[in-house]
Design goal:
It contains 2 helices and 21 strands. With about 290 residues, it is mainly beta. The strands form 5 sheets. Strands 1, 13, 14, 17, 18, 19, 20 and 21 form an 8-stranded antiparallel sheet that branches. Strands 2, 4, 6, 7, 8 and 10 form a 6-stranded antiparallel sheet that branches. A 3-stranded antiparallel sheet has the order 9-5-12, with no helix packed on it.
Length: about 290
């Protein structure tokens, strides 16, 4: 299991340098610059579903170290694939300028281990979401680099030419260095959900509900961090992100089966303290809440 990842701050949101988008074909009213908007209801939408239209380049302004790239969700169909490349030269995503190439990967990977679905169900055959699940799911695209590349230019390609909507729609892009502790989260860290569903009770006692999708939550605790890491990584991240900036959370970046269940765009619910756990070791905790569209 890889150590938990807190990917932030997001380079796309930076105010002290300029990040630019180009490439593909995107609707004038729903442009790529919408990927900067923290409100997930504000999206970028391609003009059609051809591969030439559903790709785009990102210029980070200078060479930057990137630990994680994430798109929180999209309208991609069950058969969609994606490819992520980085480069040191504008428009050139081949050697010798190429830095990383993910190859073509499934947007919807295997998420049901053998034996976890009933025989004959739509997911039993290949372990993937059923078409019905895929139509309403929010499957993220996540690329976490074991050896973070240093690159200025990034190209994201989405291949989904048979998408029934006739276009690709994405709400947000995360490109961040992030932090993985030298020690993983402690026992007692966990995942949960916070309901947004409202309820009222009639005079007869019957309950009526205004159903809303539950937001995922996580409480991550680190114990016995070295002092330098506790200060320069954990404490600085808390101060930089605050409660208003977004980061991308991944419980286990190496996991592909449950990664979509345990990874999400989040904000800090509160600013925790970094506390002494021994004379020269420190504890830090993070409480996160999913950003909802």
């Amino acid at each position: 299991m890889a150590n938990v990842l807190l990917a932030g701050p997001n380079y796309v949101d930076a105010t002290f340098f300029t990040v630019s988008f180009s490439g593909g074909a995107w609707q004038a009213g729903l442009p790529l610059t919408n990927l900067r908007d923290p409100q997930l209801a504000v999206v970028a939408r391609s003009t059609n579903a051809t591969l030439a239209a559903t790709q785009f380049d990102v210029d980070l302004g200078t060479q930057r170290l990137v630990k994680a790239l994430a798109i929180p969700f999209s309208n991609c169909s069950r058969s969609a694939t994606y490819r992520i490349r980085s480069s040191t030269a504008a428009g050139s995503f081949v050697a010798p300028d190429l830095v990383t190439d993910s190859g073509w990967l499934d947007v919807y990977p295997i998420i049901y281990p053998w034996g976890t679905t009933l025989y004959g169900s739509a997911s039993w055959w290949d372990g993937r979401m059923s078409p019905e699940e895929a139509a309403v799911s929010r499957m993220p695209i996540i690329q976490v680099f074991a050896s973070p590349p240093i690159a200025r230019y990034w190209r994201i390609e989405i291949a989904d030419t048979s998408n029934p909507d006739g276009y690709i729609e994405i709400p947000r892009l995360v490109l961040a260095a992030g932090w993985q502790g030298s020690l993983n989260m402690a026992v007692g860290s966990g995942l949960g959900a916070e309901t947004l569903t409202g309820s009222v009770r009639s005079l007869s006692g019957a309950s009526f509900f205004d159903r809303r999708e539950a937001a995922r939550t996580a409480k991550i605790v680190f114990n016995f961090l070295p002092e330098d890491e506790a200060m320069a990584s954990a404490f600085d991240l808390i101060r930089t992100i605050g409660i208003d900036q977004q980061l991308f959370f991944a419980w286990n970046p190496d996991d592909t089966v449950h990664r979509h269940r345990r990874s999400f765009l989040a904000t800090l619910s509160q600013l925790a303290s970094v506390e002494s756990s021994t004379p020269d070791r420190f504890a830090a905790s993070f409480e996160l809440k999913e950003v909802m569209p």
